[in-house]
Amino acid sequence: MSLLIYQAALARTYLDANLRTAVRAGDQSALAEFDLSPDEFRNIQQLICDRAQEIDLFATTLQRKRVERLSLAYKLLRGHLGPNRWKLLCDRYCAQVTVQAFMTPEQDCARFGAFAKENLDPPAEHADRFEDLLIFEGTKAEVDAVLLPQWSGNAPSDPLPAEARPYLAPHARLRVLRYLPQVLADWANGALPRPVPESAPVHLIFFRRANGADVKVMQIGRWLAALLDRADGRATLPELVEQIASLSRQRMTLQDVWKSMTALASTGIIAFSRPQGEPS
Amino acid sequence: MILPTERLGVGLGYRPELAADLDRYPGEVDFLEFTGDHCFSPSLMAQAQAWSRRIPGVCHFLSLSIGTAEPLDPEYTEKVGEVLRQLGGPWFSDHLAVTRVQGVDLGHLSPVAFTEETVEIVSRKAIYLQERFGMPFLLENITSHFTLPGASLTEWDLLTKIVERSGCGILLDVNNVYVNASNAGFDPYDFLRGIPLDRVLQIHLGGAVMRDGVMIDSHGHPVPEPVFDLLEFVCDNSPVSAILLERDRNMPAFEELAGDMRRARSILDGARTAESAPAKALPA
Question: A133 with A122: CB under 8 angstroms?
């Protein structure tokens, strides 16, 4: 058996508790993909049986690290589900989704969000809040997982050129929720005040600052959200203002837009494309 | 490769939560160790760059998986290079371990086989890394609760052969020596006697805790007295340049960390003062 095959088979046994059980029981088909001879299989089986406690401890440590990270990223979901359901969800996730090569802890957390959405049934009475909760924490994890945010570095000049074409930076996310994050947090923690606030569209930008590790969440107005939703690096600011004019009773000036865009550009949330070309 | 002789002193692993204390207690931390993998995130890279302009830094990586019997991952290695280009430092380091095999990332340091084949695999990669990045590479010993079957070498023989063949240095985790010795029942000084101490440039100093009858390298408890004894022994017999106090969880008040750092510094200073004197004899 080559060392590489041996290492690969061992890696699988570290990660998969069911596989360890099967190997201990002598089920040679458990490691069939590695095409081991009976002697080679016995070699691994012997290690896993002889050092069962140590290897289980090693495997448990690996999973504990993952679950600790998930617990930090999904505090609200964990609070809402309670310890037992949370543990079951994490156990299922860790069993079904092995950590892929160079999937960072942040990417692992982002992937968990999608897994939770697919595998959890929303509560009958509060499906909308539950959905918002998954979007909120899942998007935070997603933004945190962007390894190479492209900071714009091309903040608008003063005065802003008429041909400047803004676009949302690839590491920022615009989301519309029905509830404010604080309402979601109160609900998840079981401390929702009475009367329950009415739902209304809440426009949020999730982003990271260049000098900060944490994902920030900024609430923005409807018109700015509409503008950013259309800002694809092709339309100029006057064109965008024209497109969203009908959404607001109060007609916005280019100066209003310029102020907002300058503020967003300074945080790296938006960038501007070159006049003739694709986004820079 | 010739190892640097400059002294870095006693430092901490950088984490954003430390920033306020680093500002509040200038001079307590001689150097910072940046976890290179964290610096793949531009926000943390920006922080690391800012701090490295104020306090000397070294880069420590987690996932080269130098013990895997397949080539280094080119994408990961490129990222390592980018971090080193941006943060520099007198050397860089990773663990003598397997963390990735055939596309599966263990997310954890798993042991290598103590064999000549491993010596060959690791040495080749260490030589390549030093040539590619033009700076010394240090290998760190890990904790392991089990030894893979078929070992033809001891752990210290393995490390020694790799160092001799590749010319790399050693990042000696004295707590890991203590933990492995406690669990496997060997004398930690056998380990220290068995490795080329003249290649030890950096030390990791951490805490351990007994859990279910097994000693765990916790990074979350005070440094045990026997580990300080090991530190003193190594400092007296090697050209140690840097001692890093590892603490990742159960973070105490900074004053407590500073106390351990001062103690480590006094051990390092004592060893340096005695530099002109003959080295202490290794325990038989």
Answer: no
Answer whether A106 sits within 8 Å of B41, measured CB to CB.
yes
Q: Do B41 and A147 touch (CB under 8 A)?
A: yes
Question: For chain B, how big is the Rg over CA atoms in Å?
Answer: 18
Q: Which of A51, A65, A101 minimises the CB distance to B104?
A: A101
Contact A7 B101 (CB under 8 A): yes
Neighbours of A115 (CB within 10 A): 17
Per residue in B67-110, pLDDT tens?
Answer: 999 999 998 999 999 999 999 999 999 999 999 888 777 778 89
> Where do the domains of chain B lie?
9-274
Q: What does pTM read for this prediction?
A: 0.74
Top-level class of domain A165-273: alpha beta
Per-residue pLDDT of A114-164, as tens digits, reads 999 999 988 888 888 899 999 999 998 888 776 544 444 455 555 556 677
Distance from the Cα of residue A273 to its chain's centroid:
27
Q: Are B144 and B111 in contact (CB under 8 A)?
A: yes
Domain locations in chain A as residue ranges: 1-50, 165-273
ipTM: 0.86
How many residue pairs bridge chain A and chain B with CB atoms within 8 Å of each other?
Answer: 108
Domain B9-274 has CATH 3.20.20.150: yes
Distance from the Cα of B104 to chain A's closest Cα (Å) equals 5
